[in-house]
Write a structure and sequence with these properties.
Methane Monooxygenase Hydroxylase, Chain G, domain 1, 3 helices, 83% helix
Length: 84
């Protein structure tokens, strides 16, 4: 356990950031699942835009690696383009 005041504060800050990061990544996973669940192209394009936007925002904040984001976006776009 931490003995210094600054170390105790750092522990609190890390926990807050961990929960924020976990919530953000969970939201991305949920949006990705929503895209794959849709069957019509019209509906999926709006959800795709939301998912891509969230992915890009989290890359800029350092929660996702840029290559991971690019791979996820590529898979989503390919899936939506195959829909009728």
């Amino acid at each position: 356990m931490a003995n210094h005041k600054s170390a105790k504060k750092r522990i609190r800050q890390n926990e807050t950031k961990r929960l924020r990061n976990k919530a953000a990544l969970s939201e991305i996973k949920t949006l990705i699942k929503k895209v794959y669940a849709l069957e019509s192209k019209e509906n999926s394009e709006q959800v795709l835009r939301d998912a891509v936007s969230k992915i890009d925002k989290n890359v800029s904040k350092g929660r996702l690696h840029k290559n991971t984001a690019a791979r996820n976006k590529s898979k989503l776009v390919r899936f939506v383009n195959k829909l009728k």
